[in-house]
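Quick board copy: two proteins, each given as sequence then tokens.
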Amino acid sequence: MKKGDVKDISLADAGKRKIEWAAQQMPVLEIIRKRFAKEQPLKGLRASACLHVTSETANLAIALRDGGAEVVLCASNPLSTQDEVAASLNRDYNIPTYAIKGEDNQTYYSHLSAALEHKPQFTMDDGADLVTMLLTKRTDLVPNVIAGTEETTTGVIRLRAMAKDGTLKYPIIAVNDAQTKHFFDNRYGTGQSTLDGVIRATNLLLAGLKVVVAGYGWCGRGVAHYLRQLGGKVAVVEIDELKAFEAALDGFRVGTIESLTEWGEVFITATGHADILTSSFFDAVPDGAVLANCGHFPWEIDVPALHKAATASVRLDDAIEQFTLPGGRVVTLLAEGRMMNLAGREPKGNSIESMDLGFLLQSLSLERVATAAATLKPGAQPVPDDIDRDIARQMLAAMGADR
């Protein structure tokens, strides 16, 4: 098998420095890595991972490798890859990595296919693209797959749909459903990093800005609360009655997309579902509106419909594209409608601390399914409560909490 596919292997020195710096900020994962290296709970097991290829993810892959796993990594998002990190994983850590920032769809899916050529016994996914390809195009590999993990909301939604129709043939731990991940990674991590992405791309002053947040799940909550702390005027769109009620009790204006279209100046989608901002929205959206998405896939904003509605468009840079709509209205789309925190200008993603927790969940969940897969039924599985609580204790200790 070809050992990875990266943009430029000469970038590896810079990537190694990045990986080492991130490791210093991920103390809890480092504890697990050292235990894995000693106990070898994953010895000889093949794992294919489709994740954001960043310095934080690199440390997860290294921890799994040190635990005895044979790891192959590919990118879960064409715009989030750090090319220098991908180069270093291949050269310095013997982890075949298939990822090039900005890769086209053909290359993206060829990289997924390459990861499956590893004939994995375990899958690790962020968005369920790898699992979907496995279950639809590489069914010959399914009998050898023991279990897997899924990182994000959109992926869990897809897994549950596959489980419902009988397509999902093996157990997958829904890491995103862990309470610790909801609190730390989704709410605080994504909340902060999404707005950081918006600010980096636009340099807008959030104070006094009228922002509509579509979705009041954990990520939407984080975005809305951070916006308010920074002085933004925030309205929430939520179809779930209980979440909408919660948003109202939290003091946010609650309405429909239709009722808030003319009010909003910035629109941020955070639902995990497709077609939130569609052609009817583009027909009514006011001049100067800014559109951004913090969901995993670029389908919450119907970008093809936006292109179709526009009379002209101009790309200002990799993070900003402006569209002229009928009547001379100009609308700005950020990061092609992809994840704002990982695909915008100078993307940083979630904080290193929140990724420390998220990848701790990944590594411990993979360890659990490696030893207890026979007790699990096919389908999306919750993170075991003892793992969730153990991680909460470890994170409290790392934060210096006295309890």
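And the next:
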Amino acid sequence: MALTRVSNPNRQASTGAYSDGIIVDGWLYVSGQGPMDLETGNAVAGPIEEEVRLTLRHLGEVLEAGGCTYADVVRCTVHLADINDFDRYNVVYQEFFKGVLPTRTTVQSVLGLGIKVEIDAIARIPGAK
């Protein structure tokens, strides 16, 4: 089984021992993305809406680097520090995902660095066999 690493082209800082994404058998698996400053590796705190937008922009950058778009995502897992932010997060999430929405699980989790959201995804690479 051949694995291909995918990196966010805008990432300058190391934020841990993981790959931003891995391609295997026509699928792109994207690690949990959060509201991080990709130059410094520091968390970017703000209202849930801003943190979700930044997180999904980072997710989109990894998707693009792997040959995908948001439309190719089939599955997301979302971790919210406070499940009471669900409605506000969900509105922003729908700005990025249109049409047939990916399957999704959203849970409340203890997140590091004081961030409010982390999102991972699985996407099918267009034209993959």
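Board note added afterward: The mean pLDDT is 96.
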